[in-house]
Amino acid sequence: MLELEGELPEVYLQPGELHLAREPVIIRTLLGSCVGITFWSARLRIGALCHALLPRCPNGSSAGVSRATGRRYVDYCVRDLARQFDELGVPRAEVQVKVFGGADVLLVSNGGSRATVGRQNCDVALEVLRAEGFDVIASSLGGTVGRNIQFNTGTGEVLLRRLTRVIFEDVIDE
Fold it and tell me: Could you tell me which of 27, 101, 123, 174 has the fewest CB atoms within 10 Å of its CB?
């Protein structure tokens, strides 16, 4: 449980941001088609959360991409956090990873010919995490509603709240 919520500092992540905490904090974010990925080391009590908007860096390479730009992409975020945990001496097998988001929150009619951004974000997150040697221990992906997540970097716990879907219709009075 996130019982210490009121006692811990809070960080709110906007889309395209990433936060690695060396002291316990609550990291919050709101996800739609974006993907949020938590990384946590129980031994060091270090946690990180990224909020990526798009699946892959353009041209398939992060070379020459600034950190601020790169953090908009799922593949860049995973590799960036992998490198940061490596620098802290945390073996990949020790990192607990949880993945959230990737919902289809916008009504899109593409005839099913192409995966939505949300679906692509989910697929790339799982693919790159696997390629980097991480095991995903929990996930809540896809669907049609957004998610609000709160990550306690002191305990590794994530509180997930699914948003309600609101559909607006035009009403014409005659």
Answer: 174
Query: What's the order of all strands across the beta sheet hosting 10-12?
Result: 10-12, 26-31, 147-152, 158-162
- Tell me, letter by letter, the H, E, C secondary structure of the chain: CCHHHHHCCEEECCCCCEEEECCCCEEEEEECCCEEEEEEECCCCEEEEEEECECCCHHHCCCCCCHHHHCCEHHHHHHHHHHHHHHCCCCHHHEEEEEEECCCCCCCCCCCCCCCHHHHHHHHHHHHHHHCCCCEEEEEECCCCCEEEEEECCCCCEEEEECCCCCCCCCCCC
How many CB atoms within 10 Å of residue 166? 6
> How far is 172 from 152, CA to CA, in rounded Å?
47
Q: Where are the domains of the chain?
A: 11-162
Question: Which pLDDT belongs to residue 113?
Answer: 67
pTM, two decimal places: 0.88
CATH code reported for the domain at 11-162 = 3.30.1330.200
CA-wise closest residue to 135 among 77, 83, 82: 82
pLDDT of 37 higher than 80:
yes
Q: Which amino acid, one-letter code, is at 4?
A: L
